[in-house]
Each structure stands twice: as C-alpha cells, then as structure tokens.
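Suppose a colleague, Dr. K., hands you the sequence of a protein chain of 322 amino acids and asks what its three-dimensional shape might be. Before reaching for any lab equipment, you can write down a predicted structure in token form. Begin with the sequence itself:
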Amino acid sequence: MSTRRRLGRTDLEVTPIGLGCWQFSGGSGAVGNFWGTVQQDTVNQIVAASLKGGVDWFDTAEIYGKGQSEEALARALAAAGKKPGEVIIATKWWPALRTASSIQSTIGVRQAKLSPYPIDLHQVHHSFSFSTATAEMNAMAALVKSKQIRAVGVSNFSARAMRTAHAALQAHGLTLATNQVQYSLLDRNIERSGVMAAAKELGITIIAYSPLAQGILTGKFHDDPKLIAGSAGPRKFLPSFRKRGLEKSLPVVTEVRAIAQAHGTTSGQVALAWLLQVHGDTVVAIPGATKPNHVDANVGAMGLRLTPQELSRLDEVSRRFI
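The predicted structure, expressed as tokens, is then:
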C-alpha cells in the first residue's frame, strides 16, 4: 500500500501519507493558536522523521501563523538536506475578505516563505470569498500556465463548488487535482454530502485532514480524559473531547483497538489504514505531528493491510458518523 498515488489526473504523485503542517504555525495567527508552539528544532526532527519514514509531501497554508508554518517547513527541509524538487509542497491561499486577484498578487509571498522549494499544489482554503470559484480557478490556471505552480486544489469545498471549480479548470485544459476535507472514522460527512461521490466521478483526490480526529482515534483521551485539559489551544472545548463526545466515539475506538491488537500495531495506524484502503486510491491523508515519535506511528499505516472483514467491521461501527 505504500506505492505512490497520483493527485487527481495530474502528473503529481505522492505517498499515501503526507505530513500536515498546521501545528508549525508558531502558536500565532487566526488559526495558528489551535496548537501550542512547536520549536524549530522539533520541527526539524519531525520533518526528518517523516522523510526517513518515506513521506515525500508536506501540506501547509498561508493562514498557518501568517506564513510561519511555510517558513518552518522550508527551514526543516533545508536542514534535512533536501533540494528543490525532491519533495512535493502543497500550500493554500486564504480567501476570506479577498477577491480572486489576491491569488496572483500573493503568490510571490508564498514562494518567498517556502523558498527555495517550489509550490507544487496550490489550494483555495475554503469556498467563502468575494469572488466566485470560477474566478478563483481562472487565477489559479494563470499560475499553472506561468509555471509558478504545478497543480490546483481546493479545500473544504462542497460537491457543488468542487464541480464548479473542476469545470472552470477544464476550460483551460486543466483538471482539479484535490479537495482537502476533514475525514476520518469519526467524521464521514463527505460520504453523505456527495463530496466523495463527486471526487470518484471526476477523478479528484480527497486529501483527508484530521484523519485521526485530532488524536481521539488513538484512544489516548478515552484512556485518560484529563489529558485534553492540559493541551494547548481551543481543542479541549470541542464537543468531541467532552464526556458525551468520548462516550459516543468509544465503540469505534474499541473496535479500532481490537484490530490493532490483532495486527500488533497501533490504533492510529489502523484508523489511517482504513482511510487509505476503503476507497481504493481516492484518498490520501495528512496526519500532523507535534513530536517525532508521532511520525513513526503515522507512516506505519502505509505498510498495514486490513482484511475485507476488518474494513467492514470498521464501516459498520462508524456508520453513525456519516
């Protein structure tokens, strides 16, 4: 299962597991404070561990600490001795209170933050802006044509918005590569909303973020509910981390753990393996990591093969989250 997967119908190929870099935000910005501050030395270790484990792509964004995540990632890749072109870099344009013209006017900043590494996949972070998805895709297509990026993706787009974006790119002879959405055993909404069906129909790759439900699927918060109280940022206030939320997810966590024990592996690897297998090659995942040992647990999922019976059991026990 560790073979590379093509992003949509583009020429970009990546490992099934990438590294999500939201947590490299320096604890600042509109969404950066969701996580605590990860020091650059630790970032270097996390990125080095990812590369050692076979991961070859990294996902970041403009809004992650106003570019701090992009800069931290670039420094870490340089520290690891990686040259431009040896890894795949995905970043995102933040559309809130902006128009599509901002995509082209800010690409230089994105390139500077990630220097010397080029942007392979540029994504519209969500569908709320002062411009239409068509205008945004026209701007992205111009960046592809000028060779400033290689492919175009979106994030948090509905099935309808995704279809609109794909059609707009087709007018330029391009296709939409990806839609990055929240997806895990504890959040299967895209199966109900039509996003997954549209992705399969159009040949668009789903990039699953929060694939471990921000750590809940590892079972550590069920084992010790007090753990979340000591975590940085607002995550502790989410309903899924409260008593009722943990009770709701317990049957899934219990089944994941039983399968993990049968394979002699971890719950996190089982949860990730389900994502990577249940829809063929349609899904890739970007679990994050705030410690180097988190990476080892994540990359192990690429070598884990679940049986059809195990996939079916996980599907059944998590159906309430569709």
